[in-house]
Each structure stands twice: as C-alpha cells, then as structure tokens.
Write a structure and sequence with these properties.
Helix content is about 60%, strand content about 0%. It folds into 2 domains: about 15-55, no CATH class; about 55-245, no CATH class. Helix 1 (about 15-20) crosses helix 2. By secondary structure, the chain is mainly α. Bound molecules: zinc ion (ZN).
C-alpha cells in the first residue's frame, strides 16, 4: 500500500479502476470505458459541432451529432478507415486556407478549381471538381443498394443516416464506401483532379470483401436474409458487375 499524506490510508479509487472492478470481465470494462469516453462532452467538441453547424444547411440535432461521433467506430473494422473518419469529423487536414494563415506568401487557393479560398468544406465537398465526383459516387451507390442516397455532407461526410434493423447492412456498406472515397480525397490532397471513381469502386470491392470475411457468420447477415432484402453478397455482385463496365 502506498503511504499517502496524513498516514497509511487507501488511495481513492480512480473512475477507470472503478469501471474495471465493477464490470466483471476485462471485455465488459473496456466496453464501458469506450462508451464513457464517447459520451464525454467537452468544450472543444461543442466548438467542433458549431463549426459543422455553420457549414450545414441546418444545425445538427443531438441525435445526429451523436451518430456522427459514433460513426468513427462503426465505419469499419479497419483502424485506418476509422482514423480517416476521425480526421474528417475533427477537420484536421491542413487546407490551403490554414497554410496561408500560418505562412505568409503561400496561396489559399484550391489546387483543383483555383477558387481563392480553399477551406476544409471546399476541399472535401463543395469544390466543383470534388462535388462532381461525389455525385458519381452517390449515383453508383444508389444503383448498388437500389435506394436513393442523399447527396449531403451529413450523409457522406459524417455518416448520418436513418437506421433500422432492415437497413443495417446497407448503412454499413454506405459508410464504408463513403469513407474510402474520403480517404482517397485525403490521399490526393494536392492533386488537380478528383480521385477516379472507377479506382474507388475497385478499392471498395476489395475492402467490402475483407469486411464480409469477418461478417459472414454473424447474426446481421442472417437477419438481412430473413427480411428478404439485399445482403452484403448481393451488393458485392452488383458492385462487381459495375466495376467490369467500361467507364463512360
Ligand atoms: Zn476547388
């Protein structure tokens, strides 16, 4: 026992230690700690939400904001994609606007369309060149899942969608598909063109296969089958057929 000030008394139990002690198994304790960390409402998160609100048509509701925060973990099993989603939510990328503020003499213009002020939303969404590519991505996904997909930053950038038991599989695919395109935008940050949609579809097929290898025996896959709606496999078949088509 450590000797604390004032004599040999027990040190106070930390909240983390309390979670571990009171939740039986380590797995349950870790789940509890994760949930606690995700529900923490810090001033910086409020500022971040306000920045998103300023860029969206209407402010996010509490439920939507919570969905956006949770989407980081739900987007994929792969930590790289989760990291991409984290960076998008927190808008961490160095945009020409931010660089121009830090270094005088640098240009704040968009490398793609030459718009004079390339801030985060311009770089990832509203730039006409990127916007056209997003339109093609959303059109492709609409064909794959046979449901209209909203072309909005809420859906595509933050992963906010209506959820129910029937569309779990579809939402997972849409989250993965959008995250991969966001990753491509980030990886071609200074490019004069948008990422190629054909390349995105090929990468999506590969990543969707990796996800399905993990999912195949899970309950979610069976539930979707029972409801007689599209399964992950049928999405894969449609995407495979589309990837074989010649680009227009
Ligand atoms: Zn631009």
């Amino acid at each position: 026992m450590r000797q604390w000030e004032g004599g040999p008394v027990e040190p106070p139990v930390s909240p983390v230690l309390h979670a571990i002690l009171s939740h039986g198994t380590a797995k349950r304790a870790i789940t509890f700690i994760y949930a606690a960390l995700q529900s923490v409402d810090t001033p910086s998160l409020a500022e971040l939400r306000a920045r998103w609100d300023a860029d969206l048509v209407s402010p996010l509701t509490d439920t939507q904001w919570s969905q956006a925060l949770c989407h980081i973990k739900k987007v994929s099993r792969n930590v790289r994609l989760r990291y991409t989603q984290l960076n998008y939510l927190h808008r961490t990328y160095l945009t020409p606007c931010r660089i121009a503020k830090m270094y005088t003499g640098t240009v704040a213009a968009c490398p793609r369309c030459k718009h004079h002020r390339a801030d985060f939303m311009h770089m990832v969404w509203s730039c006409p060149i990127i916007s056209t590519a997003w339109q093609t991505v959303v059109d492709t996904l609409t064909v794959v899942v046979e449901t209209p997909i909203p072309l909005t930053p809420e859906a595509c950038l933050l992963g906010i969608r209506t959820t129910n038991k029937q569309n779990k599989c579809r939402n997972k695919l849409l989250g993965l598909a959008c995250a991969l395109f966001k990753r491509m935008i980030a990886m071609h940050w200074k490019s004069q063109t948008a990422p190629k949609v054909e390349a995105w579809l090929k990468i999506l097929l590969k990543w969707a296969q990796a996800e399905s290898d993990f999912m195949s025996d899970t309950q979610i896959h069976k539930e979707i089958n029972v409801d007689n709606t599209h399964t992950w496999d049928t999405y894969m078949s449609i995407m495979l057929a589309k990837s074989d088509e010649k680009p227009p």
